[in-house]
Design goal:
The structure holds 2 protein chains of 2 kinds. Chain A contains 16 helices and 8 strands. By secondary structure, chain A is of the alpha+beta class. Chain B has 4 helices and 7 strands; from the N terminus they run αββαββββαβα.
Chain lengths: 394, 167
């Protein structure tokens, strides 16, 4: 049969005008890629996003109010629940605020322990990010590897303080207990192990062709915009601005530690993933220096629970009452600048505590970035902000 | 730039709008006139010697006994690595503070949070809605005189907002 004949035989659908209209769709709060309970109301034109408006508060537990009703030491356990993937950092920033108000000097060994556990926590948190972000992009395998590696860090933490997720380890004036015998050797072993695994992870995920195709050029945040929206952490360093609280305003013993601030000029989702993968290597460097330093302190024979030695704990009254004052302290958490503004009125409870959550601020850029992308890319952008809803909603 | 230089520069430029200054734990703290807040903030951002391009945090504090709300702005400069605290006090009976979203866009969500939890109204804010609590919540829980009562939740109001009848 000739081509013209075929054309006559095959039924040709009548040509119609395609009706288009903008639709409003809910993404979440039960969407797997929103990492928790985030609802994003999106306006779509076909597959294209025209507007995206995050709706928060599904996990709001009012920590700021709760803290006002508790004494200073009682407030520490609440901090574990802000950002449950980096509880050590939350403990730390809260205790640091109280210590600043009280004018307490923390013992040197405790400072080094704090830096070490906080960097371990950063690796653990970034591993969760890489794993789940790979999952969002359709890469299932790296997720298992990431969680296997994270598990080893949690095992170390468990030996140190008895908990795997909500540690309550860093206390006002120091840490809750000293490092047990042999712990540092295990930690050092883990460093070598992790260094090899990070290279493997790079091959599997960061430089994976499909992954790169999904993330390069997506969610571009120019440096001016990143600054205007107050982004911090890997979000701003992925736009080429070397802002890191550890360098900009060194706290604790970070001024004695050698490390580089990782930046990438790419401004897109892939750049931010790369920054995180490199930051884990910098954390290894920092931990190595901490371990070397901690070996110079005398090792305790036996670490009794709930009985911290003066080596790791300053003298703090059981119910501290700071003089009326206010202070803002911030640290570099895995997600960015985590700050606490604390006001004391001379009583044993804080008069006001405000949490500056990095994920909360970073998420506020979404309505500006998402429009113009496709729906599938929104998953890439939201996942890339690395939100933990416990901290966004507080 | 030292705190004295900073203080001097601000006093020269804005005179009476600077109500009080003190050196606290975060360096210089300046209490300013609410009406002049946006001008001062824009100056702080654009002046090359100040260069406060990063608004870290906006916090609201309820001073019940003094009958005032306080809004605290923590600023930081990436280039000079110095910080500054701006404080504004408004009466509890009429808590209006001009919005600084036109200066730093990051203020948007911080101000929405302060409105939601403390009930401070930011004039000139592009989209002043509750952010953490549901629409229809009555009262502002971080106020010191707030009494929690689940019965007070205004469901009808929330439904109207969801239907778009109330802006």
């Amino acid at each position: 049969m000739a081509a013209t004949e075929i054309r006559e035989v095959v039924a040709v659908p009548p040509r119609r005008e395609i009706r288009t209209e903008e639709m409003e769709i809910n993404m979440g709060p039960q969407h797997p890629s929103t990492h928790g309970v985030l609802r994003v109301v999106i306006k779509v034109d076909g597959e294209w996003i025209r507007a995206a408006d995050p709706d928060l508060g599904y996990l709001h537990r009012s920590f700021e109010k709760l803290a006002e009703l508790r004494t200073y030491p009682q407030g520490i356990f609440l901090t574990d629940r802000w950002d449950y993937l980096s509880a050590m950092n939350n403990n730390w920033v809260y205790c640091m605020a109280v210590e600043k108000l009280l004018g307490i000097q923390v013992p040197e060994k405790a400072e080094w322990i704090r830096v070490m556990v906080s960097e371990f926590q950063r690796i653990a948190s970034h591993l969760v990010f890489l794993g789940t972000y790979g999952l969002d992009m359709g890469a299932l395998t790296p997720f298992f590897y990431c969680f296997r590696e994270r598990e080893k860090i949690l095992d170390l933490f468990e030996e140190l303080c008895g908990a795997r997720l909500t540690y309550n380890y860093i206390r006002i004036g120091g840490v809750s207990r000293d490092i047990p015998k042999g712990w540092l050797d295990k930690a050092e072993e883990l460093l070598d192990y992790l260094a090899k695994r990070f290279d493997e992870l790079d091959d599997l995920l960061t430089y994976n062709k499909i992954f790169v195709a999904r993330t390069v050029g997506i969610g571009v945040i120019p440096p001016e915009m990143a600054m205007d929206y107050g982004l911090t952490g890997p979000m701003i360093r992925g736009s080429g601005i070397p802002y890191d609280v550890r360098k900009a305003q060194p706290y604790s013993v970070y001024d004695q530690i050698e490390f580089d601030v990782v930046t990438h000029p790419g401004c897109d989702c892939w750049a931010r993933v790369w920054v995180r993968s490199q930051e884990m290597r910098q954390s290894l460097r920092i931990i190595k220096q901490c371990i070397d330093k901690l070996r110079t302190f005398p090792e305790p024979d036996f670490v009794a629970p709930y009985d911290p030695s003066p080596q790791v704990m300053a003298k703090v009254p059981p119910k501290p009452k700071p003089k009326p004052n206010d202070v803002y302290v911030c640290i570099e958490s895995p997600r960015g600048e985590l700050g606490v503004y604390m006001v004391s009125d001379g009583s044993e409870k804080p008069y006001r505590m405000k949490i500056r959550g990095p994920a909360f601020v970073n998420l506020s850029v979404l309505p500006a970035v998402a429009p113009g992308h496709k729906v599938a890319d929104l998953v890439a952008i939201v996942g890339n902000i690395d939100i933990v809803m416990g901290e966004v909603d507080r | 730039m030292t705190t004295e230089q900073m203080e001097q520069k601000l006093r020269e430029r804005f005179g009476d709008a600077i109500l009080a200054t003190r050196v606290g734990l975060n360096g210089l703290e300046v209490r300013v006139e609410p009406q002049k807040l946006v001008d001062i903030c824009r100056f702080l951002r654009d002046d090359p010697e100040m260069d406060f391009n990063f608004l870290r945090c906006i916090s609201a504090v309820d001073w019940l006994n003094e009958g005032e709300f306080e809004v605290v702005y923590h600023l930081f400069s990436f280039r000079h690595r110095h910080e500054l605290v701006i404080k504004v006090r408004v009466p509890r009976s009429n808590p209006h503070v001009p919005s600084v979203t036109s200066v730093w866009r990051t203020a948007n969500w911080h101000e929405r949070e302060a409105y939601d939890l403390m009930g401070i109204i930011f004039d000139g804010h592009p989209d002043l809605r509750r952010i953490l609590l549901p629409e229809g919540w009555v009262g502002h829980p971080l106020r010191k005189d707030y009494v929690h009562d689940i019965e007070r939740f205004d469901d009808e109001y929330a439904q109207k907002i969801l239907r778009g009848e109330i802006k």
